[in-house]
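Onboarding guide, step 5: your first structure request.
Type a short instruction followed by the sequence, for example:

Predict the 3D structure of this protein.
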Amino acid sequence: MLNYRIFILILCTLTFISCDDDFTETGAGLINTIELPPLLEIDNVASYSESFGAVQANNISNFYIGDFNDPVFGKRNYSILSQLELSTNNPDLENLVELDSVILSIPLFSRQIAENEFEIDSAIGNTESNFKVKVFKSNHFLRNIDPGPDGEFDQSQVYFNNELSDFLPNIENEPIAVSETLTLAELKEQKFLIEVINDSITEEVAIPPQIRITIPNSFIQEEIISKAGGPELVSNSAFKNYFRGLYLELESDNDDVLLGLNMNSESASIKMYYKTESEIPGDPTAGTEPTTEINEDELDLLFRGISLGLSEQESSINLSAQDTIQGEEFTYLRGGAGFATVVKLFTGEDTNGDGISDELEDLRERDIMVNEANLIFYIDEENASSSLNRPIRIMVYDFENNAVFTDYNNDPTASDSSPSVSLISHLGPLSRDEDGNLIYRIRLTDYVNDLINGDRENVKIGVIVTDNVNITSTVSVKDTHLGLFESVLAPSANNIRGTILHGSNSPNPEKRLKLQIQLTELTN
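The system replies with structure tokens like these:
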């Protein structure tokens, strides 16, 4: 009897969950019916592309070095310019007797997939291609505050990714250090460090994939140790004014390796290992003489200052003439200094000239409820045929007001801990439809319902590629082709990928961008 009751309880629970899933999938607003009316397809939609000449290079989360050869958009070279900070202000190096070694280490974005193997999440290229990472000293001061045209000093300094030519005159020609020859395959292998516990005991410590480069002792001796006790190391402000920073670049055999470095990691640093000598006083009562003791010590230079993700690119995409009224045949998405797609709904005839299309006014006059509304974006698989041009997630938002839609805030699948599967009801990831076509299904039920039944303004919708749908902060852009954007969501600036979408005027009518609405007529 007990087992039977447990079975009934489980069956009821599964039934409730199934009903709840159905409710979430179709949205609020179903009224006591199983059969839904046919989809209403709104053809009066315009989509076109906006380009960014540059995006903000500071206050971002992803930093790359190397080359990315995009089959659609061309080649882009990435490098990093970064400040360092002292882990300890005004370090006491008076008793230093020997500098053992100096190691620069910056982790990659990775996850462990086997006991001795990691998957590197931000590396692209031939796994067997040889490459080296070079480190140069920079003499260019990176400031936190923009002095302003009239010396206001009231705005944070914004740097842009296309400003490498401004920095190069202040970057020394010869590298401080060069890594050993590496391959992506080697970086995935588990590495161990030997940690000395005492003179007779050592321990192997596993470390995740990272770039490790030996910095010459002579460089650190001259630049850091010789300044101990002086004004250069008294504070981090003084130190960053004295030691301006480092420039990192990657050189590969075939220009086909790109690495994402986690510059914001606590372990991104230059670690100085050295020996100090301390005096142990003697004990006259015991007849012992004073002696000296050698101690192991270390000092870190941390990548906690300003870091800039810089890039130079070649592009064959020409957006000189965009039809912002009827829309384009194809639109483009690309992260960084790339492209966004702009979408406007209900763009049909407006006979009374009030700024609202006749089609939208007709819907507003009817007593209807929006059960579900979707935009279906089809990838142009003929011209974006490479897996490199198949980003998993895209994102839509009200770029005129730098705000997400109500659908974003109401999505029950939101997850802070799992961005890759977060908000999949509103921002459907790359998938295939019933005919095998690659699509992104973007649910805008709440927005469209507010357009028809509320007082929501019909805004232009920005469409971008993203590597984290949970991040909604913005960064600045400049040199936009149409002048529509002053900023863009930060995940787009961090992203390297791009694709081509069928637009609202696509030569393939079946794949044209349309707004699909499932609605219910309400009757008294």
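Each response can be followed by summary notes, for example: Confidence is low (pLDDT under 50) at residues 1-33.
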